[in-house]
Amino acid sequence: MDQQSFIQNLPKIELHMHIEGSLEPEMMFELSKRNNISLPFHSPEEVRKAYEFDDLQSFLDIYYQGANVLIHEKDFYDLTWAYLLRCKQDNVIHTEIFFDPQTHLERGIDFGVVVGGIDRALTDGKKKLGISSQLIMCFLRHLDEESAFETLAQSLPYKDKIIGVGLDSSELGHPPEKFQRVFDESLKHGYKTVAHAGEEGPASNITNALVLLNISRIDHGVRCVEDSVLVNQLIESRMPLTVCPLSNVKLKVFESMEQHNIVELLKKGLCVTVNSDDPAYFGGYMNDNFNAIARSLYVTNEQLAQFSFNAVEASFVDDIHKTEMKTQITDYLVQSGVI
Ligand code: ADE
Ligand code: ZN
Question: What predicted TM-score, i.e. pTM, was given to this entire model?
Answer without folding.
Answer: 0.99
